[in-house]
Amino acid sequence: QVQLVESGGGLVQPGGSLRLTCAASGTIFRISAMAWYRQAPGKERELVADITSGGWPNYADSVKGRFTISRDNAKNTVYLQMNSLKPEDTAVYYCNSVRTNNWGQGTQVTVSS
Questions:
Q1: How much is the pLDDT for 30?
Q2: Which of 24, 27, 63, 86 could bond to 76 as cystine, CB 3.0-4.6 Å?
Q3: Residue 112 and residue 72: Cα distance in Å, rounded?
Q4: With b meaning 16 or more CB within 10 Å and e meaning fewer, what string describes 49-81?
Q5: Radius of gyration of the chain from its Cα atoms, rounded to whole angstroms
Q6: Residues 59, 55: Cα–Cα separation, whole Å
Q7: Within the chain, where are the H helices?
Q8: CA torsion sign, 6 to 51 to 36 to 85?
Q9: How many CB atoms lie within 10 A of CB 42?
Q10: Nearest to 63 by CA among 17, 97, 102, 95
Q11: CB burial class (10 A; 0-12, 13-18, 19+) of residue 20?
Q12: How far apart, in Å, do the first and last CA atoms of the chain sit?
């Protein structure tokens, strides 16, 4: 089992930036791919980005060029840097440990003027 705690969400104006952080417990973090998902009201949860244990990222088309996923294995932490935010990025963002399919509690991101 991996426990995940997200932070960094909030209210930001369109065009602004936020950095989400996911802190993980346990040594399995270092060998697990990690992912960020999001779920907007009335919509299904969707993959935003994932990153292999070796640091190779993958992005949904909707966020390519604007979001960057990264990880620090020494700190058991994965990040999601979100730039040029749009109102349609508004959602609850969840961290996921791919190997164990554990989820964090989510952090709300609201993009609005």
A1: 81
A2: 24
A3: 30
A4: bbbebeeeeebeeebeeebbbebeeeebbbbbe
A5: 13
A6: 13
A7: none
A8: positive
A9: 5
A10: 17
A11: buried
A12: 39
Low-confidence ranges of the chain (pLDDT < 50): none
C-alpha distance from residue 5 to each of 36, 77, 84 (Å): 12, 10, 24
Residue 8 token pair:
């960094």
- Give residue for tokens 């930001």: 12
- Whose structure tokens read 């709300």? 108
User: How many whole angstroms separate alpha carbon 5 and alpha carbon 93?
Assistant: 11
In angstroms, rounded to a whole number, what is the distance separating the alpha carbons of residues 103 and 94?
A: 7
**CA 31/CA 34 separation, integer angstroms:** 9
What is the DSSP secondary structure assignment for residue 2, as one 8-state letter?
-
Q: How many residues does the chain have?
A: 113
Extract the tokens encoding 112.
Answer: 């609005």
